[in-house]
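Can't attach files on this board, so I'm pasting raw text. These are the components:
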Amino acid sequence: MSDMIRGYTDTIILAQLLRHDSYGYELNKAVAQASGGLLELKEATLYTTFRRLESAGCIRSYWGDETTGARRRYYAITELGRALYRENCADWQTFKTIIDTLLQGEEEP
Amino acid sequence: MSQKIDRYVQGLFEGVPRTKKALELKEELLGNMRERYEDYLREGKSDSEAYSLTVASMGDLDELIAQVMPDEHFRQEAQYYRRRSARNTAIAVATYILGAAIVVASALAPWEGVQILAVVILLVLVAGATALLIYTEMSTPVEYREEDQDDRWMKEAQRHPGGQTVKAVMNLYWIVVTTVYLVTSFLTAAWGITWIIWPLAGLLSAIIRTVIALRWQHE
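---
Top answer:
Structure tokens for the assembled complex are below.
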């Protein structure tokens, strides 16, 4: 299943950032909770994706001003990111319909 | 506490040049890992359990760290700043020596006014040289600076577990020596001879360090 999800890591992250700006751990926790603990992204995957999306201009980052402990790096979605999100969602709908149709098997009597 | 996490992340970045990207990634990772670790503790996990789970959650970071490795541009910049720092330090040190030389030479002059002038020149030179050193340090971007003392000291402490103890012992030692010096000097009023405590204390401190170092090697 993780192989199938891998292609959608970008979109999952974009969907989270669509709600509000977030930082690595918080975002990962939200994903884990929303999926009922079934899906948790590895930190390595998470940060690689952040960096790829940022250099593509789909998200931007800024440092929080925490007074105690380490600073947090927050990510925010950009217009380009929103467009990519919508595009990926449309793709997914098409894909889902096709697979649903194709997997509808009935044994002939 | 979360020191183990800090050390783990520190270890991941061992040997990675301190580029801005690398430092930022490290800070980001560190903050998030600490928070995760503390969350595990709050859930009632044991110290070592929380640590293992946190480390496991990281996955393979090698690829990510490879992305923040420096390019040719960084190396050239680093070299420029290193040369600039070496040149300015040399100029500053030469200026200090020149100032001292002027004062020494002025002692040979027959008029007192020359000596005062020499001291004024010395102060001006020292101010200029110090300003140069401070400017060089401050205007060097953090990623091109030499590793700071804290980092170096932390690595040292890892290599010799107990390095912190020696530091604490030596701090205490010098406080005791100072106290002994002041007390004996005031009580005996023999200021002319009590200075001998300092070279003796220096010798003793070297002996203590050597003995402790040898004991570690045995362990």
